[in-house]
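Progress narrative, Year 2. Work on Amidohydrolase family protein from Sphaerochaeta associata advanced from sequence curation to structure prediction during this period.
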Amino acid sequence: MGQKKLIRNARAIVSCDALDTVYYDSDVLIEGFQIKQIGKNLSSEGCEIIDGSSYFIYPGLVNTHHHFFQTFVRNLITIDYPNLLVVDWLDLIYPIFAQIDSEVIYYSSLTAMADLLKHGCTTAFDHQYCYTKKTGKSAVDRQMEAASALGIRYHAGRGCNTLEKSKGSTIPDEMLETTDEFLKDCERLIKAYHNPGPNSMSQIVLAPCQPINSYEETFTESVALARKLGVRLHTHLGEGENPIMLERMGKRTLTWAQEIGFTGKDVWYAHGWELQPDEYAVMGKSGTALSHCPAPAVLGGFPIIDIPAMQRAGMTVSLGCDGSATNDSSNLLDSLRMAYLAQSYHSKIREGAPSSYEMLKIATVNGAKTLGREDIGSLEVGKAADLFAIDVSRLELAGTLHDPKNLLARCGATGEAALTMVGGQVVFQDGRLLKVDEQQLACMAEEACTERLRTQFPTIFG
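Result:
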């Protein structure tokens, strides 16, 4: 059954279960990957003991949208996102993306995943659409390698772009694929990595990048293959493309997606700040979910989505970091705080802004639902032991401890976790990634970035 662990006498355990249970001064018994029992004074026979007396424990966060390959184009004031139109910014950034190779994919993914794990994220979806002559078809393989090294659950969105720039795409031609080669590689990756079972550490999602950057057949064929093989679908939608879609197709993007079958309980979109109230109902009725990424919305000055209205319409809303080029970090606790504050800002004109705890459930329970996972997202007997703990013995948290459920986003607890556990395995504790030599990897990652990108773009990187 696997090694037994007992987290002894946790000060509070915020379960995020259907009853919103908080356990005080309680234990968590873990056997193998599963939670076996939660309660007081549990037997410690045969267990490795973890002292939880200074911990508040939460379910592992679930990140539902990211672009790991962008991690090496952070902190570039020379092409600062807020000071440029999106199209102008893309024209500057894509020549850099076109030079990314397999080593950059590997080390940038390690960097992003490490940041996620350190800040309580145990399951991450990444939308990998950067395929160049230098990356070949190895991008997701290298990401799986990185995820295995660190011990994070990884859902890989195999993305693509197929439409030529001469026909209206924003993507350089050297980053294009054909629909057939995209689908062929999706089948390869599903066969190699997709595990739909309990405690799965790797899954594959079909994720053509964006409706305006691919042929319609890329999307229709993705739908057919995903439904045939039982995997999920993802794309960007409602992030500024609607005027182009109206010009090209004579219809808004969601209507187009609905007509071709790219909606449903196995589909979710990223961003959605262009969605209209009548479209919330379409998504709610079809079960199509949305990943809310607050950082790029705030950074780009885009509308903040109306989460309460979306939820009233039956939509599932989850939380994502989005790409590092429009976030500059992979800290989902920071995104949680930002999302909470942004929703609170609109509370006077919106009915019922989510509480800090409700935002936590969006980042955990709803994240698991978005990815089609029933084994993660809350701390309950039978579910995977995916969790993180914060040390509440620190002076800066004095006076906040009466409300563990609302503490994180409300009080800005966005620093490193004291402990992160994935499937019963402690992967980060007391400032250390336990499965890798972090200092060595950091040096190698910095070298990879310098050799492959900074030397080629000195005026941008400085």
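The longest strand covers residues 4-14. Residues 318 and 367 are 5 Å apart (CA to CA).
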